[in-house]
Design a protein that fits this description.
The mean pLDDT is 93. The chain has 5 helices and 12 strands. It has 2 domains: 6-135, 3-Layer(aba) Sandwich (Rossmann fold); 141-215, Thiamin pyrophosphokinase, thiamin-binding domain (Jelly Rolls, Sandwich), CATH 2.60.120.320. The chain is an alpha/beta fold.
């Protein structure tokens, strides 16, 4: 079993590009499949270390094949209080992962997609850095008192969206439209579609929660 503290979770949403997903992996990553996300692993020629969920998206034959491959299987009841992705995130945290990449976390169902985007805001994941990747797009959460460096290329899109209330005292550097200790109001769109002026930018948040969305127009997401 890898000793790395970085986990990659394959959720059961859309995985637009197998090549982009493959580039997101590092040697030693802990691979966790959330239910039907195991099919994404198989498509990439990967064997997940863990399979987590209620398995309503996998038939018994698929489960048996994964079991024969040596996958550790953790099945949960169908009537449960958590989605398969949340169970997978909890499992990664229990394994000691402090960085988690989620692939296939977005999809056609808006309820699942919105819930998945908000999962990093849960208090139990406050000590874990979670990023959702979807091709050239990456999403991560900034908590109060935290800073983040965005890496990309000139012209990449950076959107800052407050969650659960106003984001207070936001400071940015390296973006076309800078913020200098200003507020982003919950429900307003001021922070959407900013632009990276170079290869890096910095974001600092003093109070609140800030969902950061980066769209890389020229280069794949750096992981």
């Amino acid at each position: 079993m890898p000793s790395n503290r970085r986990a990659v979770i394959f959720a059961n949403g859309l995985l637009g590009s197998l090549d982009d997903a493959r580039q997101a992996l590092r040697p030693g990553d802990i691979l966790i499949a959330a239910d039907g996300g195991a099919r994404h692993c198989v498509s990439l020629g990967l064997v997940p270390h863990y399979l987590v969920g209620d398995f309503d998206s996998l038939d018994p034959h698929e489960q048996d094949e994964l079991r024969q491959m040596g996958v550790a299987i953790y099945q949960h009841p169908a009537r449960k209080d958590f989605t398969d992705l949340e169970l997978a995130l909890r499992h990664a945290r229990a394994l000691g992962a402090d960085e988690i990449i989620v692939l296939g976390g977005l999809g056609a169902r808006w309820d699942q997609t919105l819930a998945n985007l908000l999962l990093p805001a849960a208090k139990e994941f406050a000590s874990v850095h979670i990023r959702l990747l979807d091709g050239p797009q990456e999403v991560f959460l900034l908590r109060e008192g935290e800073s983040a460096e965005v890496r990309g290329s000139l012209g990449d899109t950076v959107s800052l969206i407050p969650l659960g209330g106003d984001a207070q005292d936001v400071t940015t550097d390296g973006l076309e439209y800078p913020l200098r200790g200003e507020a982003l109001v919950f429900g307003a769109t001021r922070g959407v579609s900013n632009v990276l002026l170079g290869e890096t930018a910095s974001i600092r948040l003093e109070r609140g929660l800030l969902l950061c969305v980066v769209i890389h127009h020229a280069t794949p997401v750096e992981v």
